[in-house]
Structures are given as structure tokens and as C-alpha cells.
Amino acid sequence: MNVGIEALNVYCGLAQIPVPALFEGRGLDAERLGNLMMRNRSVGLPFEDPVTNAVNAARPIADDDRIEILITSTESGLDYSKSVASYAHEYLGLPKSCRVVEVKQACYAATAAVQLAAAYVASGVSPGAKALVIATDVALVDERAAYAEPAMGAGAAAVLISDRPRILDLDLGAFGNHSYETMDSARPEPTFDIADSDRSLFAYLDCLTNCLAGYQAKVDNADFATTFDYLAMHTPFAGMVKAAHRKLMRESGGGTASVEEDFERRMLPSLAYPSRVGNLCSGSVYLALASLIDHAALDGAARVGLYSYGSGCSSEFFSGLVDEESARTLAAMRIGDQLDGRCELGFDEYAALLPATLTCLVPERDREVDVGAYEHLLGRARFDRDLLVNTGTKDYHRTYEWLAR
């Protein structure tokens, strides 16, 4: 049975700030800009939250009455009990018979959900069933985050799993996992993130090596340098992925190509979108996959090696096939046009928005979000679909409206 990703879309908000402008505004060392390999970072506006991001990403691919499971993955939960998925289920108009659940494991959770959903479809217990996985998050960073601030993005990636894998045909049973407890990053309160950058870097690289070894234990003759035509990885920032690629090339012997040539051929296409968005958390690897499909010259079937890492930590290396149909199917989402249409913020505008955006997860009994107060920014953004926006809370219940294109 062929099982995998039938449809994929991402939503990365309505605003962005060029990373050089953020470096200058914060007085960061410009010589470190090249190491990030970042051009822009998406910035959530005060009426965008995990629900709006999820719905706006999934709506173009969720018009299917065979969706039997909805899973949201997020580290931006809104409630200790009620899931983000319950709101997404409502505003996507999914069947009442749908299973609805939320999962959490930092930036890895969406891949766990994808694998569980693929196993459900492959089991055949409900022929023709589909599952919708939405990875959705917001960024809670300001000047306290130092060099992590320019790397953090915001938005969501939506993945439809079925037995018609027009985007990615998963290699079922081909995977390697590695997990252990570590405090490399966390969100102890709904207003800020903490991160140990060095610990996170080493955990990411350690898990990558061990996940690949686990994959190779399951797949005969699997070799990092030769088995995969392309690569897409969780991308905290593009420069970290380049370091990870260099490490695995050294460990694998590297084949006949130079490390730089191999990076440009197999990995660089996956970094075009992440370098314009920032870390999309558990949606990051699927943003990288979308970037790869939109930017690689696909001619026939090509095997993609994917790596998903989540702080805390859990990780997985897996693979699947893409082809020309993948490119045609994804092109309809016009992801590049969405990114082009974001409003560009100056540093002062960005800094003025932070007090409101940093409190979007804080529970308030009653709250009003005046979307019209941001008309000056909406007028500079381009979007071709109606978008869901958060209008506040009433007795802790979040309220939403549709913003006409």
C-alpha cells in the first residue's frame, strides 16, 4: 500500500522583518549574520494565534469528508485541557465524527503525529480514511533571546495523510528514532521561551547521528551520501542545517562529491523557505519539504531523507519519494507568493507590536482584539484567501472572525 502526504500547505503570517534590520535594531554583531543564513523572519500580528495559524494553513487542503482524524501539534497551547484542535475542527468545518486531539513534544510532535496517522491509514481498518495533521506555533521572543530572536518564525504547516500520496510517498517502516531527557529549551510560562543554545546544538547533532544509525539498521545498505537524492531537516536556522549536513558527510565518508557541492545540490533547495520564515517549530521540517519540492528540479522519482528534532528531546530520521506530481500538486498552494505578500516591518514597528504579540497565549477571562487597529499593516499585506483572525475572548472562550481578502 502507498501511504503518505496527499496535500501540504503552510501559512507563515501576514508580516515579516528582514533579519539584517533586526540585527541592526538590537545592536547584534553583524559578523554573525552569515552563520544564520537567514533573510527574514515571520512575525505574528496581535490577531494571529495558534488557532488562526492552524486554520489558515489547513483550510485549502481540508475540504474532504474522509478526514477521520485531526491532530494539532503545538508548544503554544491555549489551555491545560481544551485543545487547539477543537477550535481548528470548528472553523475548518470538519465532520463531527472526526477524532480530535493535540500532541506536544517541542519541534518533533508533528512527525510523531504523521507517523501515527500513516500507520492508521496503512492498517486498512477504515478504507479510504484520511488524517489531517497541523503543526502550529507562535514565537515568544524579544531582546532577552539575543541571537535566537532573529531565528524564530511563526505560523503553521498542514499535512493531509492518505493512501493517495501525491506530495510524499512514505517509505513505510524505514525510520530511526532517538530520544532522551535534556533541558535544551522550554516554555515554562505562556509569555517567554528559554533556550540553552549550545546544549540544543549538541543534542540536535547527537540525535541526527543516532537516528540515521537507527534508519540504517532497518534499511539494508542505506548510506547518507548515496541513498537520498535530496534532504529536508528541521531548520532552527539554515546555518545549523548546513553544520548538520557537514557532520554527516564526514561520518559517512562523503562519497565522491565535495561537501559544499553536495550541500548545494541535495540540501539547499529545502532552505529557501525556512531562510525567509525562521523556525516554524514542529512545522519546520514540512516547511523545508515544501521548499525542496518547490525549488528542486524534479525529473522522475527522487528519494528524500527527512530529519525531525524536538527539544527535550525526541527525534526521527525517515524517508519518502517525491516526483513531478509532487511539484504540480504543491504549486497550487502558491507558497512563494504567500511569503512575498507579507507586510515588511521596520524595526520600530516590530518592537511596538511585541507587547501585544508576547501575551497572545496568556489566559484572560475577557479580552478584545481590535483588528481594525492594524489596518495600516493589513493594507500593506497581500493575501488571496479569506483568513481567520482572533478577536478576543469571552468568559475565556476564544472568538474568531473571517477577514475578507
TrEMBL record:
Stored InterPro entries: HMG_CoA_synt_C_dom (IPR013746), HMG_CoA_synth_N (IPR013528), Thiolase-like (IPR016039)
Cite the Hydroxymethylglutaryl-coenzyme A synthase N-terminal domain residue spans from the record: 64-162
Keyword entries, A-Z: Transferase
Domain Hydroxymethylglutaryl-coenzyme A synthase C-terminal: residue ranges: 260-353
At the top level, the lineage of the source is: Bacteria
Gene Ontology MF term list: hydroxymethylglutaryl-CoA synthase activity
Question: Gene3D superfamilies, per this entry?
Answer: 3.40.47.10
Question: What biological process terms from GO does the record include?
Answer: acetyl-CoA metabolic process
Q: Which family does the entry's similarity section mention? A: Belongs to the thiolase-like superfamily. HMG-CoA synthase family.
Instruction: Give the protein's recorded name.
Output: Hydroxymethylglutaryl-CoA synthase
Q: Which lineage?
A: Bacteria, Bacillati, Actinomycetota, Actinomycetes, Streptosporangiales
